[in-house]
Amino acid sequence: MKLIQVFITALKLGCTSFGGPIAHLSYFHDEYVTKKKWISAHAYADLVALCQFLPGPASSQVGMAIGLSRAGIFGAIVSWIGFTLPSALILILFGLGLSHLDVSNHKHWLHGLKVVAVAVVAQAILGMGKKLCPDKERITITILTSVLLLFINSALLQILVLLVSGIIGIYFLKSNEELPHEPIHKGNKLIGFLFISFFLLLLLLLPVLRQVFNSTEIQYFDSFYRAGALVFGGGHVVLPLLQAEVVPTGWVKNDLFMAGYGFSNAIPGPLFAFSSFLGAVSSVAPNGLLGAILCLVAAFLPSFLLVVGVLPFWEQLRTNQVIRKAMLGINASVVGILLAALYTPVWTSAVFSPKDFALVIVGFLLLEFWKLPSWLVVIATVVISFVIYL
Fold first, then answer.
1. Helix 254-264 and helix 274-281: axis angle, to 10°?
2. In the predicted model, is pLDDT for residue 168 greater than 80?
3. What transmembrane ranges does the database entry give (predicted)?
4. Cβ atoms < 10 Å from Cβ of 166
5. What distance in Å separates the CA atoms of residue 344 and residue 50, rounded to the nearest whole number?
6. Could you give the C-alpha distances from 268 to 1, 166, 183, 388, in angstroms and in order?
7. What is residue 178's predicted lDDT score, i.e. its pLDDT?
8. Burial letters for 78-106: b for 16+ Cβ neighbours within 10 Å, e otherwise?
9. What pTM was computed for the model?
10. What is the rounded distance in angstroms from the CA atom of residue 246 to the CA atom of residue 227?
11. What are phi and psi of 135, to 5 degrees?
């Protein structure tokens, strides 16, 4: 029963989570923390902070971790399947039928999707800020983090800022003993160690197998696994790595690569699902559908192995008083990272006119004060955007 609940909830999010990884975390917070109450706000912030340290798509990793805590390893798997399936199917179909599709004339509703993401992210930042930044010290950490990342934004700097915020938390913040705590996943440390070992083994062994065996499948699996294992900073950061793997080798033409990238930004779900499109349109994949599945699994496998491997150790660490004080600072910094992301890329890619801003504040009103479901607000904003700009 829990597996079904996890799958249906993840599938719903996979069908309605527009706006990229930052917006996904906002949708997740609304669904898993506010509505389902499967995880506390502090435990959720801990997960987001952890996934900022791990390579791979942060939003998908958070979903896997919540599925893992709810229904074990199979819960993590069905959570990933549910969240990824809609976007993967859309991208595979788009790739297989690219010559028959034309999305160039649909810029109005595509723009509406970007606009509503601004309202979704703003609402999530407000909600997380109230809970995780209740005093002037943590608000200061949030603002300084945001300001720093607005001046110099990089995945490496994000990790550095989280580390510094944790150190500040240890020495200057007080851990409240009554702070609510929900175990994320106790797990088994031996199993965790085996998963981490398997992650490293594949990372080292696949390039060797690629040279020994003249197999297209191994070449594809190695390229996409390595991209998923080495990228920090979310879905958009993986695109240059994938482009370097598939375009110079002649696997995918650059115009097809860019067309798929543009389309993947207009659909719900994780941007890493773009890997399924590349497998579908590749000129040397086994066949369209098989190549799509192979590339999709290879890109997400490192994230799955790391989440299952790290969480058993993470649960013990986060209950330690020193770690909990560090997490107070890190959680405040996470809000700052989201606040910086609210401006760029979320705001800068969507709000270009007073009409855009009007749509944002109406969407925020419906979400925050009228408490309408996010999927309904997405549909309403897209329709209004289409009517206004048509």
1. 150
2. yes
3. 73-97, 109-129, 141-171, 191-212, 224-242, 289-314, 326-352, 372-389
4. 21
5. 22
6. 26, 33, 29, 23
7. 47
8. bbbbbbbbbbbbbbbebbbebeeeeeeee
9. 0.76
10. 11
11. -135, 170
